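During the second year of the project, the team shifted from modelling isolated chains to modelling whole assemblies. The rationale, set out in the original proposal, was that interfaces cannot be judged from single-chain predictions alone. As a representative example for this report, we include one of the complexes processed in the last quarter. Its constituent sequences, exactly as entered into the pipeline, are reproduced here:
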Amino acid sequence: MKEQKPITIHTVQNGREHFGEYGSCRNLLEYLSKNTPFRLTALCGGKGVCGKCRITVVSGSPSAPTTEERKLILPEALERGVRLACLTVPESDLSIRLEGEKELFGNKEDRFGTPLPVDRSIHSVVVELPPPSLDDQRSDHTRLLSSPSLKGIEFPPALLKELPKVLREGNWTVALQVLDHQVLSFHSGSKLVDAYGVAVDIGTTTVAVYLFNLNTGEHLGTLSELNAQQVFGADVISRIQFAQEGLKNFKTLQEKILMQIDSMILHLAKINNLRSTTICLATIVGNPTMIHLALGLPPENIAQAPFIPVTTESLCLSTGELGLSLSPGGIVLIPPAVSAYVGSDILASVLASGMAEDADTTALLIDIGTNGEIVLNDNGHFIACSTAAGPAFEGAEISCGVGGIAGAINSVKPGKEIAFTTILERAPVGFCGAGIVDLLALLLEAGLVDETGRMLTREEAMHKHLSFASRLTAVEGEPAFELVPARESDTGLPLSLTQQDVREIQLAKAAIAAGIRTLLNRIELPYAQIQAFYLAGGFGNYLNPSSAIRIGLIPRELEGKIKSIGNAAGKGAALSLVSEKAYSLFRSIKDRTEYIELSSSPDFQELYIDEMMFPG
Amino acid sequence: MKEQKPITIHTVQNGREHFGEYGSCRNLLEYLSKNTPFRLTALCGGKGVCGKCRITVVSGSPSAPTTEERKLILPEALERGVRLACLTVPESDLSIRLEGEKELFGNKEDRFGTPLPVDRSIHSVVVELPPPSLDDQRSDHTRLLSSPSLKGIEFPPALLKELPKVLREGNWTVALQVLDHQVLSFHSGSKLVDAYGVAVDIGTTTVAVYLFNLNTGEHLGTLSELNAQQVFGADVISRIQFAQEGLKNFKTLQEKILMQIDSMILHLAKINNLRSTTICLATIVGNPTMIHLALGLPPENIAQAPFIPVTTESLCLSTGELGLSLSPGGIVLIPPAVSAYVGSDILASVLASGMAEDADTTALLIDIGTNGEIVLNDNGHFIACSTAAGPAFEGAEISCGVGGIAGAINSVKPGKEIAFTTILERAPVGFCGAGIVDLLALLLEAGLVDETGRMLTREEAMHKHLSFASRLTAVEGEPAFELVPARESDTGLPLSLTQQDVREIQLAKAAIAAGIRTLLNRIELPYAQIQAFYLAGGFGNYLNPSSAIRIGLIPRELEGKIKSIGNAAGKGAALSLVSEKAYSLFRSIKDRTEYIELSSSPDFQELYIDEMMFPG
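Output from the structure prediction step:
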């Protein structure tokens, strides 16, 4: 038998390249997940049915397209090399391209009003040391500490490893970055160099890393990727279950996310021409499950009543404890959380919204993801809850739902022909949350879905709205409204909203609306007194407020007060990275927040049933 | 082809057992070094010529003895199953036994005047917490910190991982060990448990771990093993060279020693029925190279002029930083050193000797290993130097030299027939340092070696000492004195002292004697004023002071003042483990020690040549 040369895969995404050996993977999806930092959405878990793990083969010989691929990919796209990673096997070295993630995630959320207000007391100290000789044999460490400019400043042992090299390369002159009274990083020579930091937002679906100059507050770049843990479960509960199946799984989840964050930091450093060791401070926010998994803390008690996290306290760790490629003397700040389902990401959003600095304005903040977290301020005091809304507004558990990816239908406008738009104006691939809300609002308005959520049959609808009624079909025996026919969609399949989809939305919106009312009832606050309604998270980016009000997700009384604040969690993490004051405020928000457990609130149960109906 | 069942090796040493798969090792020496915590001496590096990697095969089929083994092992021993690990391959599952290490290292050094004086402010705190409920969802961490008894006490994040289990298993009652204001360890329930600690002495040849009760000062056990790094070089310079050959080597050295220490701690915990997590404090001493390698600090500047260590400062590390199986909240103290060749082991010996507490007594301390480190006290001030004496007194570089192992000749007494003793009264296998000094003193006294170190030929010696002269032979063309004929030695080879051996001893003793004189000259102190002469280290255990004086290793003026203090480094490490005050004294000894670099001292060069002659 001739020995086979190993097959090499060259992967490019947004100019970021990776070379690897294909080895004995079953398909390109497995290869990408196991061997590269790149992640693809694969909602069906690689079964070849969801059509979401699309890649483009740029050169080389892949296996021939399967029947499933021919169903899910338009012929022109197949012609261009578009394939499903889960069904494709290389037959030679391949060069493949993935959709740029920045494009995928819309980009809106990346913008910061930079530079951010900086107040970390980071300063540089340049020290010139006498070189050692047989008459002066002090150790490198003793020599450095003997410098009068380092009096009272702590030099962490983790930096010792690099000390001999740094001192000798700089001919016994060294520049140190000092935060408060601790050296964070150092380098050879007398050139003053700024210190850098990263803010990290670990979402269940998406991980975002933001790079900042800690001296100027300037935002240098953002990288966001799908969370590498996704292959082990789409939501927090399934990840916790996976972790509980054994210590190996638990460790895998921690490794996956830390390696991903590390690789993202290295990439950001590289494209900004920074040595990763000049990055010396990090803040990491996320929901409590994501934070537990990243820190290697057992998450199981989060998933079962009475829902107790290991910690909600703010922590200050060394980079070594997490094995991140920052300066070995660097510090990782883990901001506090409130409870098992109201994490540092929500507090970061509150911080970013400005609610905490404006106690006089009564405001609500809501972040709709798999759970809907809601925070109400009340004269400088906060009340928070988390509703198990489910991931419907993220496009999951919706038959044609997708995340905020290119080609996702993000708005639907009524009219004779019904118009819609897609993200990046690509051919439509499915509905993202905003598109679903728009379409459902339109169907309610047209009477094709009634107050109880029942979708009319075509016959029943004929007298309500003739042109729309013609789109009423049936998918697997249940009523469905077809917005995009098969021939016009990029997947080659019709894009419809089904009766079941309407039910999912109905449950989700009821949970959120009831959560809002529970908080207000707690302090007997009428809707009218709410002065601002902040909508955090990607979902809010495209959401049409009037549609959200039409389906009863947001109370009508809040019309005109709604403000979408994008990825506020990331912004809050960034603020507390560059500003000591902001981080103090972060911690004080936590101290001032009261958590309401909805699962044991009789009030909530009643309101939930109430809110199940759609507004008339 | 039939699939082969993997071969299992069962290894026993001092009742400590290990099972492992042989795999694809080349021989049992490689297997033991790669897969087990046990170490064998293999001076020739596994080439089958030194005969020192002896094991006993208890059951199973090993390969047939090779010609080399038949040369190096007596037939009766071969019969008993004695083999050389480097030449033996298993042909079936084997059970093998190694010489007990405690026996090997003589045991004298293990004795402490226990209990040691304890003053660490370790105390236990028992906390009963209200269990969580849907009405009290505080995190485990917040719940614990809310206890009034933990006010002002720090709970290290490294303990969070275990917190949920510990709280729930103890039904929300937990006992914590607190040192100063920091929790070191904890366990479920209200039972008060003592805290334990280990003192570690990393020698180039031997690693010793001492287990203590930190509440009572009681010494619970000692384990000593050959340093697992030995296969990479016998002395510090060859280890540094190995480390310099590449990052992988450097990391291997660190891993080897940390894994060995960890496995020794686990073993001591097990035989004392302690969970390793109740061990929460460690002190680690050693020569600077050993400490650098254990901490992963680059050692190369230690090996080249002007001989600069990375650090000589005392360090306080977390157990996590070294990956040791102590309590995850435990602390590892690294006491300070003086210079590249006067390490924390020597300062620990000074501490153990009591010199620092008795400033009025002028005393010398000397530790003879590969280097001879010498410390002189002078009214509370110390002067130290290190002489590159070479390892002759450890039995290395001596043709029939061995360490202090069973069967080593440790004393030689003149008389008609020359009598000698061996360690544990085993059949003789070679000379340890004390035996070499005795024999050389005898030969000098008998005139068979002259003042210049020349060994007489048999013809020249005939008129000097007839019965001794008959033992003068030639080994590979050079004069040699045969003490034990081949038929009486356990190795089947004659045991002789050669002309070259005498030269090695001559250089070594000159270096040490000149070092002592250099220190005395520095403060113009005559020998007569020295009131005490402490001999630290294993070499001192068996050394006959009058022989040491006869060969000029120790000045005649010190006769009657010599005190062997055994493994003082280990004792000093133990004292500073159990006593805060002792650890302060340790650091103050460092601050009061002046180092004299002999390589640049013209004084020393001259004295070295002076001391080359043997006393007449």
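Residues 101-110 of chain B have pLDDT under 50 and may be disordered. Chain B is about 30% helix and 25% strand.
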